[in-house]
Design a protein that fits this description.
single chain; alpha+beta; 6-stranded antiparallel beta sheet; 7 helices; 6 strands; about 40% helix; globular
Length: about 180
């Protein structure tokens, strides 16, 4: 290969065009932050902050409501940042309880999802739950594990954990506070 020719403007322009075309195939949605809140548990009279959670959407719903966010089939995600150490068993049980509270009973899908939590979550670690509208999959990524579960039904069930029946309803309100 002639190095002089490989550095020509035409070569560089062609390389840039190919690079941009290939990367656009793998482009991630351009997410908009819809809100941020803190998940807390109350033990007796003490309120314990567990994680900070933010919610993002590729497209925004036509109405500002939690139900509209649950129902919308668009790219969206939650990002948690742990504010304290939480053992694996507590996280898994909390998720199972939240699915049950929202009347979701597909134990195979729930089991696949919570299997990503292979160990305890340490303060400062991050958890991402992302819905891919093209593939109709929900993926959870945690330190040390990832799980992907298919189905629009599972996405809606997962989004109901924070926007449906919850013991901290103000958290769902905070997660849509930035919607117009």
């Amino acid at each position: 290969m002639n190095l002089a020719r490989s550095k020509s403007p035409a070569f560089l322009a062609a390389f840039a065009a190919i690079f941009l075309a290939v990367t656009s195939l793998f482009a991630l949605p351009d997410y908009t932050l819809t809100g941020t809140g803190v998940r807390a548990r109350t033990v007796g009279i003490v309120k314990i902050e567990v994680y900070r959670i933010s919610h993002y959407m590729d497209e925004l719903p036509p109405t500002r409501s939690k139900q509209a966010v649950i129902d919308m089939d668009t790219g969206k995600k939650f990002v948690w940042t742990m504010l304290r150490d939480v053992d694996r068993a507590s996280i898994v049980q909390a998720l199972r309880d939240a699915y049950a509270m929202n009347d979701y009973t597909d134990m195979a899908k729930i089991g696949r999802f919570v299997a990503a939590f292979e160990g305890d979550l340490k303060a400062g670690s991050e958890v991402t739950i992302e819905y891919d509208t093209r593939e109709k999959t929900t993926t959870v990524t945690v330190p040390g594990g990832t799980a992907t579960v298919g189905g629009l039904d599972f996405m809606k069930a997962t989004w109901r954990i924070w926007f449906g029946k919850i013991d901290q309803p103000e958290l769902g309100d905070a997660l849509i506070a930035k919607l117009p």
